[in-house]
Structure formats: C-alpha cells, structure tokens
Amino acid sequence: MPANIEKARILSEALPYIKLYHGKTVVVKYGGSAMQSEELCEAVISDIVLLSLVGIRVVVVHGGGPEINEVLEKVGKEPRFVDGLRYTDEETMDVVQMVLSGRVGKQLSRLIGEEGGKALSLSGVDGRMMVARKLRADKDLGLVGELTDVNPEPVRLALEGGYIPVISTVACGEQPGEIFNINADTAAARLAAALEAEKLILLTDVRGLMRDPSDESTLIQVVSLPEVPRLIKSGVISGGMIPKVDCCVEAVRQGVPRTHILDGRIPHSILIETLSHEGIGTMIL
What we know:
- The protein is of the alpha/beta class.
- Helices cover 42% and strands 21% of the residues.
- It has helices at 3-21, 33-36, 38-53, 65-74, 90-114, 153-160, 184-194, 228-233, 241-253, 269-275, and strands at 25-30, 57-62, 81-82, 85-86, 119-123, 130-134, 145-150, 164-168, 170-173, 179-181, 199-204, 222-223, 258-263, 282-284.
- Strand 3 (81-82) and strand 4 (85-86) form a beta hairpin.
- The protein is globular and about 60 Å long.
C-alpha cells in the first residue's frame, strides 16, 4: 500500500475516536522509561499536544523518581526506600518539591510549548488541589501521604483556558505547615475521578497485564472489575502491578469509564490506544 494511502487510512481510522473524545478529559500519568529516553519523551509530548489540538482535554500527572535520586546524591543524601516506597524525611521532601514542581513540571511545560501546545505547570499545593494526611502503613514512610481531598477546580480552570495542566504530586496537609509526597499513580486516579474523566492512562515500563510476565504474547487486553480479585489470588496480578491495578479499579469505581495500563517504552502508545482500532496494553473497565 503506498505510503500516502496508508497515512490517509490511519487518519480516517482516527476520526470516530476524535469525535468520541472531543471535549472529554483524558488523564495521563507520565513516568518511568518514557521520561528517561529523549526519543520516547518526544513521542509522548507530541501525542499529548496532538490530542489537545483535536479538542481532547488532556491532563498530565507526572512522577520524577530518577531525577529526585540524582539531586539527593548530589547533596550527599542516599535515597532510602521501604518496601519499594520512598522514605521521605523533611530534607528529602524539600528535594521532592524542588525537583517535581520546579524542574520536571517546568521542563514538561516547556517541551509541550515547543511542540505547539499550551501547558501550565501546577502542583497539588496550588489552590489546595490535593490535601493529604500521613500515610497509615505498617512501616513509617515519613512525609508520604494519602489523599483525603481532591479539588479539581484549578485543573478545570486551566483546561477551560485552553491549557494542558501538568501536575506534580505534592500535597498540602490537613494541618497548617504540613506537606506530603503522594504516589503519582494514586494521585492520577483520584484526579481523574474528580474531573469525571473519560479515560485514565498509566504509562509504565511493562507491556501491560500478562498471564506470564516473561511472555508478552500472554497480554490480557481487557479486564473487568469482577475479574481482578481472582487474578490477584492466582498471582497473575502481583508485585508492583497490584498498586497500579488498584488505582485503576478505584478510578473505575468512582466513575471513570476506561482505565489503561500502557507500555510507555512503545513510541506513540498514547495515540495507538486513544485514536486507533488496534489498542495497546491492558484496559480495565
């Protein structure tokens, strides 16, 4: 098939999805390898801008773990983890704020602008968008919080102004002077629900949910909520995939129609999932 005809076919295939999602909100949690590779980062940014330009209201919630580790090491502080979760003391919290809200958020906003979009960098502290209390866990994680309230109004105002909100997951405390580090997947799920989003996309470093993690051909493309407990019990959903699936489940229970776990290592995975018949990754609905 000649290249120009193939391009026309792809655009034609995208049209019904553009109609479906026009004016709707899509929340993208961006992190992992897709942030570390310059090529993948360019693909993600172009996907986000394209969706915005065709009338889809895109919200980006981002992480920044490697960047936080880099700055901690520069100041002579070794990153500390408890059961895979970052222990956040006051000094680390200062670095988290500086890196997520200062460096990463502004850099993503700049890249979106250079690609032809309009971005506004925000944190969960702005407008008290996210309010949290200390996470109740078996082991002390310091200033890691769990969300108690999400106020979507600052994000809605940005969207209505034609901006792509780029949000770092630092939250206010319930008490004056408190501030907490929030898991980005959890924050994205809660924000998607509060915004009544049509879709939540979690970009990860794996193909999706697979029956055999070592065999990508065993990818499970669609999972319904009643199937989740059985898949956890059988070990299909295990390890680091459990909290990601839990976030998707929580978003669906709160009214988000579709949630997706996508491989951010695949260029343009967001467009493939959103604007094509093919789809990619695992959808939980």
